[in-house]
Amino acid sequence: MSRPRVAFFSFGSCEGCQLQVLSVEEVLPELLGAVEIVNFREAMDDRRDDYEIAFVEGSLIRPEDIAEIQRIRARARILVAIGACACLGGVNAMRNRRPVTELAKAVYGGRQDGVFAALPDASPLSAVVQVNYEIRGCPIDQTEFLAAVRSLLAGTVPAVPPHAVCVECTLRGTPCLLERGLPCLGSVARAGCNAPCPAYGAPCEACRGFHDAPNFEALGEAFFRHGLTRSQAGEKLQLFNNYREVREAWEKAVPSSSGT
Amino acid sequence: MGEGRAVVVRHLTRIEGHGNIVVDLEGERILRCDLEIVESPRFFEVLLQGRPYDEAPRISCRICGICSVAHATASVQAVEAALGIAPGPRLRLLRRLNMAGEWLQSHVLHVGFLVAPDAFGVASIVPMVASHPDVVGRALRLKRLANDICETVSGRHVMPISYHAGWMGHWPDRAALEALAGRLEAARADVDGLVDLFAGLTWPVVERRVPHVAAVEEGGAYPMMGGPLRTTAGAVVAPEAYATVLREFVVDHSSAKHVTEAGGETIRVGALARWALAPERLHRRATDAAARLGLRPDSANPFDYVAAQVVETVQAHQEAAHLVGLLLEDPAPEEPAAPTRPRGGRGVGIVEAPRGTLVHDYTIGADGRITAANCVIPTSQNLAAIEGDMRAFVPSLVAKPDAEIAHGLEMLVRAYDPCVSCSVH
């Protein structure tokens, strides 16, 4: 039986999600036996374009990224977006409300030509091409990645948890951070990560986007009740969920005061 | 007049991020010899502006998946410098343990996964799973151990969670530390095996002497957690004055800035530079490894980055075991340290990331928000040196076919272990 041919690509990102893939140490030999990796620049020289499944990390940022993702889409039977940058825009989209000229001035002395060119918005892959599946998170969770690979190999649809991160904190026994006055987004954030951030002393920042029925009015109320402001909820949501279509979901309910 | 010839490698492999090698030759004359950096600008320095300082380690660690612990550490140290927070002694031990874990992870990934295929004449580690299961298995076990160290300290290696100015959001308990101690002890044979593997390999020689730079901390510890910048030319510079040794500027062919000394001289940072500046601070096991690898302290050959990283793999393993032992003497969480300058100001945080000196420079306003940020990345600091070394290496390759020139230059660039997406940020 021929093994499915798989490729990995990256756009604007830290490449940490590909590193998560390389860090599935115990099962890496098994994984390499189950699929044929034909393109994975971070780890290997081989570069073939006859892939069936493309895992793509990163946001579309450079003007040439548009044609490149379209080329990958045309070749792949299944396109899987991996990580917050590819699925949501992630931290890259924090800058989307600022003009690129201002960014270029701050970082490159105003250069916007050649290698310095950037699109007005950093965007998720779905802004330009059809994405078949998403593996969310910053970074992606290895267990979830492997489960997705298994279901793709079996021809089934990778499962996505429909509930809030709060459920996972409860199951883990992590005391509520919001009740301690910390600006936690767990009540609107999609689960599946097993809530490591609250357990390690940092509020959930919704790097996996939102669950199936987020209530942003209630989030604003809860922030207010615990001594925070509604705009602090909006400000937190800018961290990973600032791409315009993602932002539309929350900005009326919890407007943020800061300029980003 | 010689014939025109172009050697181009588009999207170098087995490195992090997107870079191209572009060499134009006319006979033996080098017309152009560039390492083009074509990575996406993400504007992190602007992203940090306006954000509350507590978010800084978690935002800035997203600059880089491979060295996210180094970014979180430099970031939290910059915040502490700005606010006048002195982290407690055991917090510093815990942070150093996490850095040792990251060095181990990063160096093993580079030498064991990205460089090792060159030594065996294959295109990646994939065929080695069948041909050299022992080599692959050892690298996988060491990488797992490194990941588990970071997971124990900060929740995960890629994007550490628990960093706050003056405190840690999670403190590993006795059982977790004891488990690490046992695993570290059991890994000795794997570390020794890695040294043996690389002791048997030979690399090209490109001798080119440029100043080597590292942040060498006060006290006797091997350079890791930051301190005054020292150069092999004898300069010593306080962290806040880093720009006199690390001057950033924009060049046409790279979305990563280049860095030279203020006088314009190219520099090198990273494992080879640390080894040059503080060989006497290594543990005996690491010094023995250097001897077995034939690594000289005055090496000016960039291919020796690989051997220096193997030496530091031994050092990181040794340090991690030692630090876990110290933390086990009193594993209770330490009290948070409070700001003495709550109205903020400027603060510079420096660490030695796996690839070299990493600077985060923040200004924090009285409202607790960041008003200005600058990050100087190790790979940026090496880019000018890499191009200089490429120029020095090309004449010895020029009689060979294009593919061999390309392969030689790729190996040279890879020896530096560049982290390209990080360098652009």
Walk me through what this model shows:
The complex is a heterodimer of chains A (260) and B (425). Chain A is built from 11 helices and 5 strands, in the order E-H-H-E-E-H-E-H-H-E-H-H-H-H-H-H. Chain A is of the alpha/beta class and 260 residues long. Chain A has 2 domains: 5-154, NADH:ubiquinone oxidoreductase-like, 20kDa subunit (Rossmann fold); 165-247, no CATH class. Chain A has a 5-stranded parallel sheet. In chain A, strand 3 (53-57), helix 3 (65-75) and strand 4 form a beta-alpha-beta unit. Chain A is globular, with a radius of gyration of 19 Å. Chain B is α+β, with helices and mostly antiparallel strands and 425 residues long. Chain B has one domain (44-424): Cytochrome-c3 Hydrogenase, chain B (Orthogonal Bundle), CATH 1.10.645.10. Chain B has helices at 44-47, 56-60, 68-83, 89-119, 126-131, 133-154, 174-186, 188-199, 271-277, 284-293, 305-328, 378-397, 402-415, 420-424, and strands at residues 4-9, 19-26, 29-37, 163-164, 167-168, 212-215, 229-231, 236-237, 247-249, 258-260, 268-269, 345-353, 356-364, 370-376. In chain B, the strands form 5 sheets. In chain B, strands 8-7-6-11 form a 4-stranded mixed sheet. In chain B, strands 1-2-3 form a 3-stranded antiparallel sheet, covered by helices on one side. A 3-stranded antiparallel sheet of chain B has the order 12-13-14. In chain B, a hairpin with a 2-residue loop joins strand 2 (19-26) and strand 3 (29-37). In chain B, helix 4 (89-119) runs antiparallel to helix 6 (133-154), helix 7 (174-186) packs antiparallel against helix 11 (305-328) and helix 12 (378-397) runs antiparallel to helix 13 (402-415). The model of chain B has no long low-confidence stretch (mean pLDDT 96). Classes of the chains: A alpha/beta (260), B alpha+beta (425). Chains A and B meet through helix 1, helix 2, helix 5 and helix 8 of A and helix 1, helix 4 and helix 6 of B.
